[in-house]
Amino acid sequence: xxxxxxxxxxxxxxxxxxxxxxxxxxxxxxxxxxxxxxxxxxxxxxxxxxxxxxxxxxxxxxxxxxxxxxxxxxxxxxxxxxxxxxxxxxxxxxxxxxxxxxxxxxxxxxxxxxxxxxxxxxxxxxxxxxxxxxxxxxxxxxxxxxxxxxxxxxxxxxxxxxxxxx
Length: 166
Fold this sequence. Notes:
This is Peptidyl-tRNA hydrolase. This protein is α/β, with parallel strands linked by helices.
């Protein structure tokens, strides 16, 4: 089976927050790519001929960087998929669609940059906090058990889904 996309984009924040819930998509890409190269607007790895791309800027303002990268990679909007966290989906569940992710600042930034909200998205559920601030929750780290669950169950499911959908 081959991936149906030419580019898989993982939203998240670069730097020290690499195990935060907000970085679930970048963690997934890290599980696929073993060798990452810096480009002017992020990091790139290639697996099975597919470009894996992690923008270098903040998740909340990544739209223009991703638009530039898509242009640099010479691909159309139909040829890439954006992976991101979603608090409205229980931990470990995934959803693939073209609908806007209400409230997700990274998706809002992409929608503004592309002047279109109809692009491929894979939402990885991180669950909603039972109390406290949402910002604190999405920036909190996964527990060791949660990370193990993601790597053993959710990320293989993401790969299977990316090979099937479009």
